[in-house]
Write a sequence for this structure.
DNA sequence: GTGAAAGCGCTAACAT
DNA sequence: ATGTTAGCGCTTTCAC
């Protein structure tokens, strides 16, 4: 366990001063060093296997090249691809992600957030946003750099990278309409989340635009994006609206719950009831039946969020306040509004949707 | 973005010296401080919202309370539960995990390993071990604290936390035998991984013990733990051993590949061929058909690995070399051997296994 | 273009 | 039980 070489060792071997070595090794300052010495220093560093002590650097620069990532639960198949997308762009730029699972628990989230701040993270990528979010409001007031991933807040405090859910939901509903369905129910996700609210609204607009009467397009809200909650909501739906020939779920987990309930009631999917999920999570194509769903590019979502955050960090590097903002409206009175990036989605048709059977399940 | 309070601020507010404040705030040293001042200091810290600058602490103590975690791929459903188990015990003790995906790529693994070392991680949890592993051998030589997770090396260099795969495989084979199968094939995982080798050996022992002839218990090696590789191996298996009435796969992903191939050949599972997976990964119960498999407690595996590493870190805290070793054999000539913890598994019977149909598929 | 010197915030000797 | 001092390894003024 021989001690690791420091920059002083490198400087000595290269025959220069510590400061010069530091400059030569740092891309931003190496213009101030002659090409020859720069090369000598880099060779020396290579030879010794020098890697800078990040703690020392961090202490000096007050930056850590580290980013906190708040996600609900790594065990939910949506998030691993996002995490990988984040990791990929972050590491390429010398940053490291610190992942924290919050389990949608506010107290836990706050604890982890504080702990990460204590570790001098330079910013956060937050995939746990509620439409109203005390912690985020506070973070915003304190000028902490944050990028929102997948879920937004009602106030556009922070840049957001999300899927184009309005379009996605429209695709889903249109698919069902084209198959001939006229009684389409929505098993909505939690309305406290932007994804839940946006998809629900888009569902309602799509059915209304097609001239489907409101009572033929009921919305039942699942209290969580989970199989269990999906089952509960699905039971209620089948009890109260037995005439529905199709269901579009707020996400794939809820759809899975619905699948269970259909099975438990002896209803066949898609013959008796068609079902559309949302997200196209891993293994959605292995379900029984393989799920028709809206594909969301989770990895790209994560990658883009990381890019946005880095951009913001770089910008606010020199000066203090910089919050990575775009401008809405024009003129001097314009309010600062954060940029939103919407990534395109597409419908993936598999076996859980089909034309409604004549007579069957008609309300 | 007012500057964060330092320990000097806390000391001033409490009317003591920095060093005293530091002692009062550090559990290990607070015995050397009077209860009264300790309380005063802690109150002051609370009031200011003081959180120590980890970079400074790290620089001074040469420890980071940070652990590197090497996994193949977060997107493989086995690893998120492990990561959560790790996170849970680590954060409880004030540590943070730095996750890195290696994609089973040696170059990538080395790069990430070095990067993490550069960040002064105190140790590693490695779930990417090959039976022969250059990087790990080297890490061992350098005295880097490492705990192996799930996959071991041939040489017991490091403590290992894994599932009791020998028993698990025996359970799987016995289940098939009890159903009446006498032609059981094994779609093995990569033999360069301890899990692949151990499960294969256990398979062979189990069938041999039951008196099944070797040619009635063929072993085909899948070149990766993946659906794709599983499909390839399964095709070869069905081509070369069409008489098999049951398959036990090296893991659930391989089993899934086998399922695809059975379907593509018009063979029904379990009526024509029974199939057993391994791991009981998330959603294995949603496959078509729901998969009979060996349940492995992945979260507990991760948690236990974290515990072992912390133990080792605590121990080697003061002195230098401590490698967290047990002793094998007795007497002065005994070789240092690292502890292995095997967690129990259990067979989960679902719908992919059944008694062989009389006559069908008989070789 | 390079060297000298200071200091980030913390903790571990060493006093007292 | 508490204060004093020094220094972890790095970057960044400031000189020259």
């Amino acid at each position: 366990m021989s001690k690791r070489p420091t920059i002083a060792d490198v400087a000595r071997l290269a025959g220069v001063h510590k400061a010069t070595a530091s400059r030569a090794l740092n891309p931003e300052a190496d213009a101030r060093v002659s090409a020859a010495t720069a090369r000598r220093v880099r060779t020396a560093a290579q030879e010794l296997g020098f890697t800078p002590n990040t703690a020392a650097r961090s202490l000096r620069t007050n930056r850590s090249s580290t980013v906190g990532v708040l996600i609900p639960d790594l065990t939910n198949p949506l998030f691993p691809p996002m995490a990988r997308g984040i990791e990929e762009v972050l590491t390429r730029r010398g940053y490291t992600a610190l992942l924290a699972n919050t389990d949608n628990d506010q107290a836990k989230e706050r604890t982890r957030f504080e702990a990460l701040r204590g570790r001098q993270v330079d910013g956060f990528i937050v995939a746990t946003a509620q439409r109203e979010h005390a912690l985020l409001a506070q973070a915003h007031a304190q000028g902490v750099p944050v990028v929102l991933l997948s879920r937004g807040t009602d106030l556009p405090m922070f840049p957001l990278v999300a899927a184009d859910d309005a379009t996605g939901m429209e695709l889903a509903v249109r698919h069902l309409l084209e198959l001939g369905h006229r009684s389409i129910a929505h098993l909505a996700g939690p309305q406290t989340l932007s994804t839940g609210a946006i998809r629900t609204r888009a569902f309602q607009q799509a059915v209304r635009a097609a001239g489907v009467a409101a009572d033929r397009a009921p919305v039942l809200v699942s209290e969580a994006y989970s199989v269990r909650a999906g089952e509960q909501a699905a039971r209620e739906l089948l009890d109260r609206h037995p005439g529905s020939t199709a269901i579009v779920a707020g996400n794939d987990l809820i759809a899975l719950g619905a699948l269970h309930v259909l099975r438990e009631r002896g209803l066949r999917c898609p013959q008796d009831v068609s079902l559309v999920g949302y997200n196209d999570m891993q293994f959605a194509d292995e379900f029984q039946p393989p799920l028709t769903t809206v594909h969301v590019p989770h990895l790209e979502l994560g990658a883009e969020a990381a890019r946005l955050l880095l951009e913001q960090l770089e910008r606010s590097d020199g000066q203090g306040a910089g919050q990575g903002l775009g401008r809405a409206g024009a003129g001097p009175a314009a309010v600062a509004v954060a940029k939103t990036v919407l990534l395109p989605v597409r419908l993936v048709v598999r076996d859980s949707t089909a034309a409604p059977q004549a007579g069957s399940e008609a309300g």
